[in-house]
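Support reply, case 0932

Customer input (verbatim):
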Amino acid sequence: MSFSMAKKFALQNLRANKLLEIPFVLSSGIMLILFNVMSSLVNNNYVRTRHVVLPTLIKFGIVILAIFTFIFIQYAINFWLKRRNKEFALYGILGLEKKHVGKIIGIEFFILFAIIWIMGTVGGYIFGQLCFLFLNFLMRDVSGRLMDYTFSISALINTTVLTVILYLIVIIVSGFRIYMSTPMELLQRTHKGEGEPKSRIIIMLAGFILLFVGYGIALFVGGLLSSINYFFVAVIATIFATYLLYATFTVFILKVQRNNKSFYKPKRFLSVSGLLYRMKGNAISLASISILSAGVIISLSTTVTIYSNYVKLGDSVMPREYKIEAGSENISNEDMAKRLQSLVESSVPDKSMIKDEYTTFYMTTAAVKTGDTIAEYQRDSKADPIFVIASDLDGYNGRTHQNIKLDDGEILLGDNKNNKIGDTLKIGDRDFKVRKIDSTFPYEYSGVEGYSIVVKDMATLEFLREALDGTDINCSVYWDVDGVDDKEYEDTLVKLKDGIKNQLTGAGRSVYDVSSRSEMIHNQYEINGGFLFLGVLIGIIFLTGTVLITYYKQISEGYEDREKYQIMKKLGLSDDLIRNTTASQIGWMFYAPLIVATIHCVVASKIIFRLLGLFGVGDVSLYVICLVSVIAIFAFIYFIIFGLTSRVYEKIVE
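Our regenerated output:
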């Protein structure tokens, strides 16, 4: 067969199979667009110089995108080949050799992937500009402009390489299936579903065991460390359980319905029997839709929660605009305080420009709380650690503008988890009388159980350090300034950092830092904005896969129902009965993945919220609002998807 003849066959086939090829091109094009966007951003000079952490997050997203692009394209190709098995078989019956069929398919896929490549490069550059502006908006970077997002040659090369690899894989897979099959086998595969597995009872029991394991970990495993260790075990167990139970339990429940007397009523008989047939053939695909839907909901709800939490915290991340802190084993606390205060005063022309300054001493440590006792944390301890920050009373009064007095043996105690605190607290061999205060715990540790303790004097603070084996006591000075330009003062902060570094040279083990509230907020917006951006992209990836699988399922159901529709009409069934029973079956198959995904997300919400503590999220109501909102929005989009794909189904059946 000449190339020109093969090209004619290929073009004719492309026109005849638009229902299969358009969604394949669109979904693959979206994947390539996202891949091109992230490749452009990770190599963008503005992003690399202004946002140090972001490229690492984007590289992680690129890996995820490449994996799912391969999975989705393989699914689409498998479906595409299955729907065209009859056509390939007829080619063989008519005398075309397998190499001729392979040539036709190669030209078809070359045209399709050429269109996909154009979408990925051109669409990636256009959509990338919007993503660049959206990313800067999330990170509160007002200096980013469209001119900073230049066309990336490296992104073009990466996109081209990925397209070529995918094309070669598709050609190899499709060619292998055609060359290894006879025309008769191809005809039989056209109507072959995914099938009902053997050993159904054993597989169903295994599915329930895995589901209990996954749900049990999500609901009953406590503590942050345990949640981290077992989270992925729960995810993997739940994914496998979903596939196993879709393939067995759904069929089992439908078969049980046949024992009901009402089963033999026309409408119920047709609905249950038809749904049983559909579930046998589509269980794996429906399970995949459930998993992808849960992925959309979880990825978006968690990243939106992280970002919203930081927006909610706002300026509370630091009590004053500027902070300098240091600690050294060879410099006394009093001497360290004087050095830091002197550096702060030297940062402005006039000391009167320093406003709202206060000095505090503190130590931090991990500990174990049992009842009303806080003890040193041992590494081999099975109990989850708590976090303790102890500071002096003068520093607390300076921070809160109060004049609280403490007696000997009395402490101020606040916690970030609203735990019930008794009237006394034992630390080491001393019992302290507790006066409760609002927690002053840093926002970044709000996800773990933490206690802020304020003691009367330095002697008591030293006692706590020794009793809990805490870190060295550090000194911090917080202050605001008036009458200076913020940009110019940033250079002064650099000099302060160099100044304290020089003073601590040769002073033994030491720590030091200078920071500003605006810098901290900017860094956190960069990290959290990057997470949200990545979460949105991952959500789009999962949503694209959900749409792709749902669309192909509707096409598959449409072609199969067109034949069954004619058979039922010949048996004398009314059109209304056929439409109603078919609609109920399709409806159940559509709603089931959404219901299962919602249940998975609700059950997982407890362990996910605990893991969100790693990002400083401590407000459960905020996570619930974000989760419910994302589920509602996704359900709305899901209904739109069903409406659009149903039109394709109706056209095929009619």
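We compared this against your earlier run and they match. Two observations from our side: The chain has a mean pLDDT of 78. The first strand starts at residue 322 and ends at 328. Please reopen the case if you see a mismatch on your end.
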